[in-house]
Description:
Layout: H1 5-66, E1 72-73, H2 78-81, H3 85-93, E2 96-100, H4 106-119, E3 122-126, H5 132-141
Parallel strand pairs: 1-2, 2-3
Amino acid sequence: MHLAAHDIQQLMNEYHALIRHHGQTQTRCDALVRAHAAEIARLQGQVMRLRAAVIVRDTALHWERAQAPLPVPCTVGYAAAAEEPGLEASAAAADLVICQTGCVSHGDYWRVQDHCRRTGKTCVLLESAAGAPAMLESEKTGP
């Protein structure tokens, strides 16, 4: 099979057009690869900053919880002494109020319950003081 000179010239023109198109495609692909590499580097930096922010937040939260005041135990004179600013401030700063049921009068019980409702505190009633450590441990770990 012999090709005429005109056919060879046409094939050469098509070959050059394909090579130019191939070069342009390679240039576009190189630009896309560089853009994707830059985007990946940017996102990796953002992930690193966000992880650091979460670590800082979690550490601050952990320290805040570690320094949180202990629960304020209810005493016989709690309701009467609740008028005093010191005890009121302590009760307000507490996470929960623990009352031994045999230590409060009927009126004090209702005043303590009202105080807990108004301040949003959890009020736990115990039949004896011996149950307090176990109850506190269950409060830390959950049910």
